[in-house]
Write a structure and sequence with these properties.
The chain is 79% helix and 0% strand. It is built from 4 helices and no strands. Helix 1 runs parallel beside helix 4. The longest helix has 127 residues. Keywords: Coiled coil.
Length: 194
């Protein structure tokens, strides 16, 4: 005869032992279920995070591309602006040089004109003095020149005119000296006539 398998006989200690094992199994099954739920949630969160990371990476790349494009645009604008400024500065330097040359030309022209006017003034002085000398020489017999001034200023500057020609000659001399023609010195006129 074959030996029969050993049968389980419920004893109070084995029942207690079986109850404890069952309670442990239920507890472990609940824990495994919670861990599965947590794991699934964690996997979902990780997937969401991966998507967010991918989206952020895409946005960063786009931002870098935009920043690079903006930087290139700024560099081009700055380069164009600096080139424009350089052209403007060069144009201003050329214009400044032209103005300096024009100023030199104007100064030369003014100096030449001043010399011409000075020469003309000297020529006019000579001509006027010669004319006055000629007039005084012609009138020499009629009236001495010192009488034009009232006898050498002896009458407090009163003019003692004897003829309309004398008055006109004196007014001509006074008028010319009043206009800044200081070349009409009385001594020149008196010395040449007397």
């Amino acid at each position: 005869m074959e030996p029969s398998p050993r049968q389980w006989e419920p004893t109070p200690s084995s029942l207690l032992w079986a109850h404890e094992i069952r309670r442990e199994n239920i507890h472990l099954a609940d824990e495994i279920h919670k861990i599965k739920v947590d794991f699934t949630s964690t996997v979902d969160t990780l997937n969401d995070l991966k998507q967010n990371i991918n989206e952020l990476s895409r946005q960063v790349k786009q931002a870098e591309a935009n920043a690079s494009e903006h930087l290139k645009c700024l560099e081009i604008r700055l380069l164009d602006g600096s080139n424009e400024l350089l052209k403007r500065v060069e144009a201003l330097e050329i214009e400044n040089g032209r103005f300096k040359e024009e100023l030199k030309d104007v100064r030369r022209e003014c100096a030449a004109r001043s010399r011409e006017l000075s020469l003309l003034l000297k020529t006019m002085k000579s001509g006027v003095i010669n004319e006055i000398r000629a007039i005084l020489t012609q009138e020499r017999g009629a009236l001495p020149f010192t009488n034009l001034l009232g006898g050498s200023h002896g009458n407090s500057g009163e003019y003692l005119s004897r003829s309309p020609l004398d008055s006109g000659l004196l007014l001509l001399c006074i008028g010319l000296s009043g206009l800044g023609c200081e070349f009409l010195v009385w001594e020149d006129l008196v010395g040449s006539v007397n």
